[in-house]
Design goal:
alpha/beta; 3-stranded antiparallel beta sheet
Length: about 350
């Protein structure tokens, strides 16, 4: 129960694209509680530890609440105008002395959910002119975009699992029971998994750790960290070797089938089993189940992105969804219909335009 007189504010958490609805109770200017908003039509009361920790950020005694300048005598407060002018002069001086790539920019997650930063950050980036741009995207999801760019022609064409109609959901390196479905924002994920099982479907989770989602799965395969690409390649190998590939209506859009078969030839399940820790028979069974399901979706996320072969993992996930005919069909991995068509907005980007020291 909240204290008498507490005022309720309904807000949206800005910390990731799940944008869960929040019910925030405030008394005398202090946050009393943060809960998930059960009436939110999107998140249905889902909340994760990040949103609960917003109160800790708000009340942190070490939080900076005004600009500070480090001097020989310690920290001194500045007015906002003076602080912004000093920052601009400093950036300009470095840029003039050492070139634009002497600067680097990092954009955190909340920037994507703030109209002000959406409007003005692109202008700032163009003014700075640096190629060194980093963000939450470059930390955890660029392999998604590389695969989408190369396969579909735009980095924002990211197919997501059609949870409500699939019969077999294969999850690699993701924990939607906690994340609400990153890049696949799915409110009420626990209810959706329960519905999958009640209609006779199956959930298989591939993850080194027994996550909250793995505990709900019909089958959990504890793969060795960093070997997901071998498992995925072995599954593609089986589909091709046992003539189980059935892309159906997607066939006219495919090319280089022979190159794919040649590339996947070395990755038989017997070769993938020792490094992955998953028996060859289990790999074969999983590939055959994927091919036989009335509708199936392979979904990979953070765990298969933040590894050496992240881009290859997401390419292979798309290949599996394509070879089984599950790309962009009900119950499979479908392209979304966003409010703004990314193809009309340009921004296709490109690969290899510049290179880091790495």
């Amino acid at each position: 129960m909240s204290p008498a007189g507490a005022k309720v504010h309904y807000r949206v958490c800005p910390l990731c694209e799940a944008t869960c609805g929040l019910e925030i109770r405030v008394l005398d200017g202090a946050i009393v509680s943060i809960r998930g908003d059960r009436e939110d039509p999107f998140s249905h009361g889902h909340i994760c530890p990040k949103a609960v920790a917003l109160r800790d950020i708000q009340d942190d005694p070490d939080r900076l609440r005004r600009p500070l300048l480090r001097t020989d005598h310690g920290w001194e407060e500045l007015g906002w105008d003076e602080a912004l002018d000093r920052a601009a002069r400093g950036l300009d001086a470095v840029r003039r002395a050492h070139g634009p790539d002497a600067l680097a920019v990092y954009l955190g997650n909340p920037n994507a959910h703030n109209y002000g930063t959406l409007l003005y950050v692109p202008l700032l980036l163009r003014a700075l002119g640096t190629a060194n741009r980093f963000s939450a995207t470059s930390v955890d999801q660029l392999p998604h975009h590389v695969a989408a760019h190369l396969m579909f022609g735009h980095q924002l064409l990211l197919p997501v699992a059609d949870l409500d109609r699939t019969h077999l959901l294969l999850i690699l390196g993701a924990n939607p029971a906690v994340s609400n479905g990153s890049l696949m924002t799915a409110p009420g994920i626990l209810r959706r998994i329960d519905s999958l099982k009640r209609r006779g479907g199956r959930l298989v989770v591939v993850d080194p750790r027994r996550t909250e989602t793995a505990r709900l799965a019909d089958r959990h395969l504890a793969i060795r960290p960093g070997t997901d690409a071998l498992l995925l390649a072995a599954m593609v190998h089986i589909l091709l070797d046992e003539d189980l590939a059935a892309p159906g209506r997607l066939e006219p859009f495919l090319r280089s089938r022979e190159r794919l078969e040649k590339a996947m030839a070395p990755f038989a399940p017997e070769a993938a089993a020792p490094p992955t820790g998953i028996p060859a028979g289990t790999i074969r069974e999983l590939a055959r189940e994927l091919a036989a399901a009335p509708a199936a979706a392979v979904y990979g996320r953070f765990g298969v992105s933040t590894q050496r072969f992240g881009g290859l993992c997401h390419w292979l996930i798309n290949v599996l969804n394509t070879l089984t005919g599950n790309l962009d069909r009900p119950g499979g991995a479908m392209f979304t219909r966003p409010a703004v068509d990314p193809l009309r907005g340009g921004g296709r980007g490109g690969l290899g335009r510049c290179h880091t020291r790495v």
